[in-house]
Amino acid sequence: MPIQVLNLGKKYGQQWAVEGLNFQAQPGEIIGFLGPNGAGKSTTLKMLVGLLNPSIGTASIHGIEVQSDAIALKKQIGYLAENNPVYQDMYVKEFLAFIGNLHGFSAENCARRIAEVIELVGLSREQSKKIGELSKGYQQRVGIAQAIFHNPDILILDEPTSGLDPNQMEEIRHLILSLKSNKTILFSSHLLSEVESICDRILLINKGTLRADCSMQEAKSYPGGLPAFFQDKTK
Ligand SMILES: Nc1ncnc2c1ncn2[C@@H]1O[C@H](COP(=O)(O)OP(=O)(O)OP(=O)(O)O)[C@@H](O)[C@H]1O
């Protein structure tokens, strides 16, 4: 099972940001993790990638409990953090070489993989620039390139199109769809149109608890469609 979450919760001080989450993700699924601002999406994703320890419950990635073996976990997952924290002063290829080194690639394999991911994410024309010189959409492609560098079969993307203009959003959506093949992709968003255009399944979270886990088709056939579904579940 790529992702299994059992009674997962996180408490910050006195506040439960996430509480009693249960869900699974199957191979090849593309899941929209939807919820309003402050619903607990980033907190959940950070627990799944081992950046935050759960206060209660467990999450496992291919059977590895997220708190048990950080290195084994990171081999299984590609993660794009919210706001895409890439090094602005590094050149695109330099940054990707740094990522390849972190993953233990030999110099030869690293050079080969850099060329592959640059092609995959559509960075060929920008590959010799500094990251800080790229548009936001292209910086997002660099963030996605680092997430897929080690060819993980699980991708966790935290608001991958946030802050992009409509054209760039569309390009990143296409890119995410093109990566789908055999990967399990869990991405967070508060944009209904985005989730609708990319995913097969929705997990909807509000105030830290899961309010819906259903197919996209089911959510769209809700009376009033997806907007009504979202509004009713986040009341
Ligand atoms: N480090 C922290 N310390 C204390 N409270 C936090 C911390 N991080 C998040 N929170 C709180 O936990 C709740 C959930 O936040 P989280 O960032 O997970 O939500 P989100 O759904 O990702 O929101 P957004 O869509 O705005 O990014 C919010 O009330 C937030 O203020």
Automatic annotation (TrEMBL):
Q: Does the keyword ATP-binding apply?
A: yes
Domain ABC transporter, residue spans = 3-232
Keyword field: ATP-binding, Nucleotide-binding, Transport
Q: Which InterPro entries match?
A: AAA+_ATPase, ABC_transporter-like_ATP-bd, P-loop_NTPase
Matching entries from Pfam families are given as: ABC_tran
Supply one GO molecular-function term: ATP binding
Family the UniProt entry places it in: Belongs to the ABC transporter superfamily.
Annotated protein name in UniProt: ATP-binding cassette domain-containing protein
- Per the UniProt entry, what species is this protein from, by scientific name? Aquirufa avitistagni
